Amino acid sequence: MSDVPTTVVFDLGQVLVGWDQTGPLSDEMSRAEWEEFAAAADFASLNVSADNGATVAEVVDRAARVDPRHGEIVARYYERFEHSLTGPIPGMADIVAELKGAGVRLLGLSNWSAETIHHAPVAAPAISELEDIVVSGREKLIKPDPAIFELLLSRFDLDPSRTVFVDDLEANVAAARRLGIIGIVFTGADDLRTELESLGVLDAPSGPVAGERTAPGGSPRR
């Protein structure tokens, strides 16, 4: 089929690699204590600013201006950032390997700090199988801004109608779809595999031949 997608673009966090912001300081703060701090310091906003190109030093300074203790906690978070990464998302390394084996072009598009992105492939080696990654912190553009998707399409000369984008956030997928990209909201490897099979990007497993039944060991028998 000439219209089968030829490229799959993956988000990284919570798609190829797990992320838990409580990890870096888990030996100092309980989850409840971290959540209290995160609310008081508006950690979500600080994290977005790093993803959008602010340096770690700038993020720490911004937190410290509100409360010096916040700055100290944020500094330690980034010093131990690798402990926020919980490892590969189950089943995704297999999907990446199968896509690569089938000759599908593999790219990444992630909201991530330019100063911490190097930890990602260590925590989830399948990320190293991607041809390249557009990192928001390097580009100073962030999903769901359409500009970062336009940069992706232009930089890699992609046909949006034959490009699949996989992300765990609906807003990011919706932004991709508005540019004609095939968007999939990631909910797990099994569901993603089904979606990719339906698009013809992965081959669907063949079932038993009509008239056969499957033996307990898995081999078909007549």
UniProtKB/TrEMBL annotation:
Superkingdom: Bacteria
Entry's transmembrane regions: none
Annotated region (Disordered), positions in chain: 203-222
Any GO molecular function: hydrolase activity
CDD domains: HAD_sEH-N_like
Key words of the record: Hydrolase
EC numbers: 3.1.3.-
Record protein name field: HAD family hydrolase
Source organism per UniProt: Brevibacterium casei
